[in-house]
Design goal:
3 strands; alpha+beta; elongated
Amino acid sequence: MLTSANAELIRIIADPLRLQIVTLLAHETLCTTHLVAETGARQTNLSNHLRVLREAGIVDTEPCGRFTYYRLRPEVVEALAESFGELAETARTTVETGRKRVC
């Protein structure tokens, strides 16, 4: 079921730059410097988006010397995928049974 917490995660990930960051981090752990190079975003803007992702629990950080590396938390994406799967199954059942509210 899509909970309000999941709805908030969807809202956060829906931002185009944050979606790009999440997609990049799905492929490899990256530092801010790498993400700036990959996205073309300004470092300050990117750092703000990373803070939002970190505070939402979507990414984890790993300090490495003077750099901070970011990695995607796959269990968060899996939980969202499961919620969407349940929603799709409910919709499929609704279509198959022809369920509709009478006016």
